[in-house]
Design goal:
Blueprint: E1 2-5, H1 11-16, H2 18-27, E2 32-35, H3 43-53, E3 56-61, H4 64-69, H5 71-81, E4 85-88, H6 93-96, H7 100-116, E5 120-124, H8 133-139, E6 146-151, H9 152-157, H10 162-168, E7 175-178, E8 180-181, E9 189-190, H11 199-209, E10 213-216, H12 225-238
Parallel strand pairs: 1-10, 2-3, 3-4, 4-5, 5-6, 6-7, 7-10
Antiparallel strand pairs: 8-9
Length: about 240
């Protein structure tokens, strides 16, 4: 499992110094990044920056509206940058109010289209899918068309065991979000190893499942976000990940 970072984590840094922030992530030992928007740069400009810095894309968060309404542009940009996975990162209640199974069927049809274009569609969870939502979504979709990006902190917040959920969806799980939290703190998101997640069984389960990428993410951070990412990288490298 290769380490990556969800760039939303360092969004403030990126908005001030895009290339400089990417360079700092590379200097901290990362080879992969996960996208969340293009920051007014073209896909060609992003590809040039990544190549110069020795970085590659592990995936991207992409809203379902953009996928359905601007499909050709989304796919073209992803291919130019070298993004293999497009993960729907969040949906409003209006999208699943008629049932997670219906949303799963919708994702399945979209996933067929994404796969035919040479990429892979997936879904990133929060906690509102629990209980039962993820099971219904994935039960209504083919694993070849819709893969999982399990956000491990949100799995735990949702009342489930992260290592157990990794094992449960091992056959459709190329990416996990390596997120830690402490519910007694505000904000609750913490550098890896400083929260409540039990990382040893989680990492063991992820390696056993053949997870390709582990993307570090903090929705918010009490300390500088870039420093929080660096602390998380150090923690996971200490666990044998690279």
């Amino acid at each position: 499992m290769r380490l990556s970072v969800q760039l939303y984590t360092v969004r403030d840094h990126l908005s001030q110094d895009l290339k400089g922030t990417l360079a700092k992530l590379a200097e901290a030992g990362l080879e992969y990044v996960e996208f969340a928007g293009l920051y007014d740069k073209t896909a060609e400009e992003w590809k040039a920056m990544l190549d110069e810095l020795g970085l590659k894309a592990s995936g991207s968060h992409q809203g379902i509206d953009g996928l359905e309404n601007d499909f050709d542009k989304v796919i073209s940009d992803a291919k130019t940058i070298g993004i293999p996975y497009l993960f729907v990162p969040w949906i409003g209640e209006d999208q699943y109010k008629d049932g997670w199974d219906k949303f799963g069927a919708r994702m399945n049809e979209l996933g067929k289209k994404v796969k035919a274009a040479g990429l892979q569609l997936g879904y990133h969870n929060h906690a509102f899918e629990f209980p039962g939502g993820l099971e219904a979504l994935y039960g209504a979709s083919d694993k070849e068309n819709v893969v999982a990006e399990l956000d491990l902190a949100w799995v735990k917040i949702g009342g489930e065991d992260p290592a157990g959920y990794i094992a449960k969806y091992a056959d459709r799980l190329p990416v996990v979000h390596l997120k830690d939290y402490d519910p007694t703190k505000d904000p609750q998101w913490q550098p890896a190893g400083e929260g409540v997640l039990d990382w040893d069984p989680i990492i063991e389960a992820a390696l056993k499942a053949g997870v390709k990428y582990g993307a570090i993410e903090l929705d918010q951070s009490a300390i500088d976000a870039l420093e929080a990412v660096k602390k998380s990288i150090k923690f996971f490298k200490g666990k044998g990940l690279s």
